[in-house]
Specification:
Blueprint: E1 25-28, E2 32-35, E3 42-44, E4 56-59, E5 65-69, E6 74-76, E7 98-102, E8 109-115, E9 124-131, E10 140-150, E11 157-160, E12 167-172, E13 178-185, E14 188-197, E15 213-215, E16 221-226, E17 232-238, E18 245-251, E19 264-270, E20 276-282, E21 290-295, H1 301-306, E22 309-313, E23 318-324, E24 330-335, E25 339-343, E26 355-361, E27 391-393, E28 396-397, E29 402-407, E30 413-419, E31 425-426, E32 432-434, E33 439-449, E34 456-465, E35 476-478, E36 484-487, E37 495-498, E38 506-509, E39 513-521, E40 524-534, E41 546-548, E42 554-557, E43 565-568, E44 576-579, E45 583-591, E46 594-604, E47 614-615, E48 634-642, E49 648-652, E50 662-663, E51 666-667, E52 671-681, E53 686-695
Parallel strand pairs: 28-40, 35-40, 41-46, 47-53
Antiparallel strand pairs: 1-2, 2-3, 4-5, 5-6, 7-8, 8-9, 9-10, 11-12, 12-13, 13-14, 15-16, 16-17, 17-18, 19-20, 20-21, 21-22, 23-24, 24-25, 25-26, 27-29, 29-32, 30-31, 30-33, 33-34, 36-38, 37-39, 39-40, 42-44, 43-45, 45-46, 48-49, 48-52, 50-51, 52-53
């Protein structure tokens, strides 16, 4: 198969926010969590960051975990501490110690806002930035602990601006009645806050800073729980255009003062429709955990207090955080509990809200998985009307050239204008467009709005119409230990899914088998499979080691001769070779890119001795010595050489030692010399030989 190269494309944002799934995975308490990608949510026990109170999690638009934090460390989706993800200035014992929000109009940058705790000498409000493109898509903290404000309460809340792009982050200043609203835009954080005074000064003992701060999902209401000495709930209006907080109402849920060692009011959240308010409180030894419900539609403190319903009183647990979930149910934590409790119908007034104690079990009695906290989120994620305008193509195959485009929400739209990237335009809300050829197209949508912002939104997407369903390349095979990278070049804005569960564009595998990769972009899907097969290694055998005699040859041959290539140590590249010298020979063969080798040793054989008839010791490096030619294996050996007068001039018992034509350091004259040879061969046969050698200089 031909490799189909996918090019990288730049998008303003790769988010397709139809069902907001950024809050679908929670991590909190003693390394536990909930996965809302299943119904009912699945209990998780694989977290690696614990917290007594606050935490935060972030998923992508499809509900896949990106990262989470306890305010001090940041864990990536592998549950490993993110690069540079330590030393954040949150605190494990802070009610709302941390919240994660996306950088407006950016597909990969996230701000982590963190607060300190009441017991700290200097509780700070800071931010850090995560880049999800770093570390191979697992993210890295690229900026850390930028100071925004000093000495604030354990209160932190986030909501979208009315333009549904920018984000408000709100905190309360210690020792004052002032709330600070900071606006985050695509240009960064405006560090000059909008300050609103609400009349309730929080000071005194440090524990008075404890208690939650929470927006309604629509962003028009804000609630603050002021614990310990104050023991009051403050309900306020919020203008998400200006960031101004107004109309503060004071409610005292506890009819009698709480005992001094108990927190009083602590957690709170609004019903999905924003009409009801739930507050958790810890009041005394006799009723340590109480969950209240209030009807806040009257906007009158006395009427709200009169509507109070006691939804649950449970012993011996202590009430913790209350948090709306993506399934529009409200979840409640109780300190040192084994389970999470649930309000099944939070829009229903009174007992009909259907509170279920310890609905989702997270651990054994001794493990105390649940602590005071649940994750803090930007509450806009729980309101579909707060989604930024966006569009995608109707889900289908990426080969389809007839593309239906849909807008994520239609409320607040006056009119639209589409540009399909091929020169064609439309003013239809949900158009169907036909492309004439494959490729990448820059599609833009202008939404003319009638909301409070008075602005027009322009959304740009690059869509892909594939020309082929083949992109993983040809099937492959190996006979060696496997460490193979397979995949595609990265496409910006594409979601990847392997049958192994990985969601990166490339993977390494050490296992043979079939691998498929599914690409999803803007609602279109396409899948290709590659087979990674095991090839048997070739078998090569040159036979047993052997011997050779002078003037003979030995045939070395690869059996069977079926391989793609041959390479001998002699440099030959045939399936067989002839050799006439002793030594070590080896051959390497290949078949389907797999290699195998074998070696054979050739030694002197049981051969007759060969004695030359003349030699020329004249320093020309040719025939300089006289003796047995080549190595022959013998059991005993003796050679003697005599002059013509019968004088012994050379004697040796070493078959490899040879006469150089000298005697006592003097050159012997030319002429004939007698030699005598006695030896015992490998078969123990005694042999005597004699002859003459001619010395020629």
């Amino acid at each position: 198969m031909k490799k189909y190269i996918l090019t990288t494309c730049l998008l303003i944002s790769a988010s397709f926010i139809f069902a907001q799934k950024q809050t679908n995975v929670w991590y909190f308490g003693n390394r536990v969590g909930l996965d809302f990608n299943q119904t009912p949510p699945l209990a998780l026990n694989n977290g690696t960051a614990n917290s007594q109170e606050g935490s935060a999690s972030m998923c992508d638009n499809n509900g896949n975990l990106l990262f989470y934090t306890n305010g001090i460390t940041v864990q990536n989706r592998k549950h490993v501490t993110m690069v540079n993800g330590t030393g954040l200035l949150g605190n494990l014992s802070s009610t709302n110690n941390v919240v994660i929000v996306p950088m407006p109009e950016n597909d990969s940058m996230y701000f982590i806002f963190a607060t300190g705790a009441a017991g700290q000498l200097l509780p700070l409000f800071t931010y850090s930035i995560v880049d999800m493109k770093a570390d191979g898509g697992f993210g890295a903290v690229i900026l850390k602990n930028v100071l925004i404000e000093e000495i604030i309460l354990e209160k932190l809340a986030a909501i979208r601006h009315c333009n549904n792009r920018d984000i408000w982050i709100v905190v309360q200043k210690w020792g004052t009645d002032a709330y600070y609203s900071y606006l985050l835009t695509s240009g960064g954080l405006n560090t000059t806050p909008v300050i609103s005074n609400t009349g309730l000064v929080v000071n005194g003992q440090v524990n008075n800073a404890i208690g939650t701060l929470k927006f309604s999902s629509k962003g028009d209401k804000l609630v603050a729980c002021h614990s310990f000495d104050n023991d009051v709930v403050q309900v306020m209006d919020f203008d998400n255009t200006s960031g101004v907080i107004s109309n503060p109402l004071i409610i005292r849920p506890n009819a009698t003062p709480h005992q001094s060692s108990y927190i009083g009011v602590y957690g709170a959240d609004f019903s999905p429709d924003g009409k009801l308010l739930y507050v958790s409180a810890n009041n005394s030894n006799t009723d340590p955990c109480t969950l209240y419900q209030f009807d806040i539609t009257s906007n009158n403190a006395a009427s709200i207090l009169a509507s109070k319903q006691i939804i649950a009183q449970t012993r011996p647990w202590f009430a913790g955080a209350v948090q709306l979930g993506p399934d529009k149910k409200i979840y409640m934590a109780m300190w040192n509990d084994t389970s999470i409790s649930v309000i099944n119908n939070p829009n229903t007034y009174g007992a009909g809200c259907n509170f279920i104690y310890n609905k989702i079990k997270l651990g054994s009695t001794n493990s105390t998985p649940v602590q005071f906290g649940l994750p803090t989120f930007m509450q806009s994620y729980f309101d579909s009307s707060s989604n930024p305008y966006d569009f995608t193509r109707v889900a289908g195959n990426c080969l389809d050239r007839n593309v239906s485009f849909i807008i994520n929400r239609l409320n607040g739209i006056d009119s639209v204008k589409w540009n399909f990237g091929d020169g064609q335009q439309s003013q239809t809300l949900q158009p169907l467009h036909s492309y004439t050829s494959s490729g990448f197209y820059d599609v833009s949508l202008i939404v003319y709005k009638i909301d409070c912002s008075g602005l027009n939104d322009t959304i740009k997407r690059k869509i892909w119409i594939a020309s082929s369903s083949i992109f993983l390349g040809a099937d492959t095979a190996s006979c060696n230990d496997l460490n193979l990278q397979i995949g595609v070049d990265e496409i910006f804005g594409v979601n990847y899914l392997w049958n192994t569960g990985f969601n990166s564009n490339k993977i390494y595998t050490t296992t043979f088998g079939d691998y498929w990769l599914e690409l999803e972009q803007n609602g279109c899907k396409i899948r290709d499979t590659i087979k990674v097969s095991l090839n048997p290694k070739p078998l090569v055998n040159l036979g047993s080691d052997t011997t050779i005699c002078r003037f003979n040859t030995v045939l070395l041959k690869v059996e069977p001769s079926i391989y793609d290539t041959y390479l001998w140590s002699t440099g030959a590249n045939t399936s067989s070779i002839l050799v006439n010298q002793i030594g070590t020979y080896f051959v390497t063969v290949t078949q389907s890119a797999c290699e195998a080798s074998d070696t054979i040793q050739i030694t002197p054989g049981d051969c007759d001795l060969y004695i030359p008839s003349a030699f020329t010791p004249n320093n020309d490096n040719l025939n300089e010595t006289f003796g047995v030619i080549d190595n022959v294996l013998v059991q005993y050996f003796s050679m003697q050489i005599f002059s013509k007068w019968g004088q012994l001039i050379f004697n040796s018992n070493d078959i490899t030692k040879k006469w150089d034509g000298t005697f006592k350091g003097k050159k012997m004259p030319n002429g004939s010399y007698l030699w005598m040879l006695n030896y015992v061969n490998q078969k123990s046969k005694k042999i005597y030989q004699q002859g003459t050698i001619m010395l020629i200089r």
